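re: that chain from earlier
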Amino acid sequence: MAKTATKKTASKATEAPATKVLSVENIETYYGPIQAVKGLSIEVKEGALVTLLGANGAGKSSTLKTISGILEPDKGRVLLKGQDITGFRPDRVAAQGIAHVPEGREVFPFLSVRENLLMGAYLRSDKDAVERDIEAVYDYFPILHERADQRAVLLSGGQQQMLAIGRALLSSPSIMLLDEPSLGLSPLLVQEIFAIITRLNRERGVTMLLVEQNASVALEHADYGYVLELGRIVMDGPCTELVKSKDVQEFYLGMGESSAETAESGREDKRWKRKKTWR
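^ sequence. v structure.
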């Protein structure tokens, strides 16, 4: 099974092999006595859009928090462009080039949209480039331009998610960590958000590691995926291949066998009695 992220577009396939931006090596992370991440290893190459899939409690968000320094692993290493950043504080991780868009958006509610964006550029000194990046964010998210002077607390959930992504973009990151960007959004807004995430990746070359419970949307937009279960990687590969997996189809995409197929095969097993083949 392939272990490296590959782009879906033919033009990307002809490029020289991408450099490795992020390497997570055999990390183990705990919440008190509870082990959330168990010997997990992943990698993300430059320009890739990689997704972590799994049910609630699989360890997806814990993995992102370990990478960004919110949680410290008991074992293993986190490498950013070859530099060991294991155990760095979150502010130091951010300064190294990792932008974390947390679950639940977490904007500064009483700051304006523009002030929120400027908070993303807090560590930057290239003011002209910052202004250009703000204009680029407004180009991707026109509603933020319309509401630039409005307090973030007055934005809708979808608009706050756009703002959180835009704020991360203003840090000019080496890699962006996106935790459940579809959470609490309508299907229409989910498609809109993911269309822009894909544009940022394809047009601006933003490297991304995406955590998402909506497996169908994640597999549609990402290049490479890892499936987590109980803190472990149980399957990985290009998303074009993962989507063909019967286990992924049944347990994450809701595409189990039809009743006619079940009757023809003579199998009457209940879904909860069947086991994933990776176990």
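Residues 19-271 form a domain with the Rossmann fold fold (CATH 3.40.50.300).
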